[in-house]
Automatic annotation (TrEMBL):
The species this protein was found in: Nitrospirillum amazonense
Keyword terms: DNA-binding, Pyridoxal phosphate, Transcription, Transcription regulation
Residue ranges of every copy of the HTH gntR-type domain listed in the record: 19-87
Name this protein carries in UniProt: GntR family transcriptional regulator
CDD domains: AAT_like (cd00609), WHTH_GntR (cd07377)
Family matches, as SUPFAM superfamilies: PLP-dependent transferases, Winged helix' DNA-binding domain
Family under the similarity heading: In the C-terminal section; belongs to the class-I pyridoxal-phosphate-dependent aminotransferase family.
Amino acid sequence: MSAIAPLWNSLMLDRQASTSLQDQIVAYFRDAALSGRLPAGTRLPSSRELARDQGLARITVVQAYDRLVAEGYVLGRVGAGMYVAEGVATTAPRAVPGAPVSANPTALTAPPMPLAVGIPALDQFPWADWAKAGMAAQRGRPAHLLAYGDPCGTVELRAAIADYVAVARGIACTPGQVIIVSGAQQGIDLVARTLLSPGDAVWFEEPGYVAGRCALAAAGLEIVPVPVDGDGMDVAAGLAARPGARLALVAPTHQYPLGATLSLGRRLALLDWAEVADAWVLEDDYDGEYRYGGRPLTPLHTLDGGRRVLYLGTFSKVLAPGLRLGYLIVPPALADRFANAKWMQDRGAPGLTQQTLARFITQGRLAAHVRRMRPLYRARRQALMAALAEHAADVLDADGNPEAGLHLVARLRVPGDDAAIAEAVLARGVKAAALSSYYLGSAPAGGFVLGFAGTAEAAMAPAARILSAAIRQG
């Protein structure tokens, strides 16, 4: 049963109207029940509460409630109050375009399901080190961190990130080029609205990062799907489709979701196109810290010298998505432009969280955490591969995935609707993202994008069994 708030601010009684106050109360609750704004089981305020809040005689509310009961919209329960009856709503609440998968707060805050993508090992979050960094950040009671700060981020965090990427990714930049954002999606949105105009074309990996595509579409941009193969984005296909595009959004280190690494030849071709077309490249390096074999290629930002490439990084995968912290590295000539755009977009991320992360990085705790996680993620990846080989080898092909990142792709060996299968396993507590959902056009074959980083090794086999059973059931 859902309780209601004691004040019904949306109930506006008109004492000058020809309609009686009792009729207005009945109409309000009747319409709310019919429209679904008050779901079945919602408890109404007591007659005494509503009369007090609205400045009415209690008898007016009692008589209105009696009419609602008589008409079947409300049920009275002795000693428990009044509740909206079952089966009353005739119209479901309208869905908001682009809304989350579920608008139910409980669903969005529930613990991650096995095989969910984009979730690091939250059970291994370095709480003790984070607490120490937080205590250091709060020492001296820095009141300025509680006020409005620089929308681009604190000086300390921007400097810490500049030092970190220099060592970890070989990127040379100054703190003034670093813009703190609330995760990768805000970074994509900021680039789209700062550098492009509605109607401009953007090369987008096909298949690709769905939330990124939504951010570009929300900015009014034309999405040009560019196919991805074993060498990453097919630059020649992009040139054939739309040579005059203004931006390319690409994940060259570990393409999402297929995992390909953009080859050196295509990296150079992409940079040549950007130079000739006076276009921009947004390099999304969402999980570049995690490779389990071989050496990563040089980032596009380094190859380009930071002239046409903007680099996007996030702490959602390396630490936790709930921190809502990421960063953009922009060319020096664009720093002021992005600073102004960021100021208009929001007033910046929370200062205390930024300062804690800055201390966490400068004290070497982030690098230490990444070193601890690499063998753990390698083991979890191997556990998932073994579980799929044992329980789903006849229906899923997980071979050929690169030894990198926090997820892998398993393609269907048998005919099947991956979206329908994904819904079926979701009902059984497993999150297997349908590969087809990452395509703007039609997918060449069905499959699943499976996260392993946030799933314990012991949970891999049960999840694989549930997935394989759903595939066989069709």
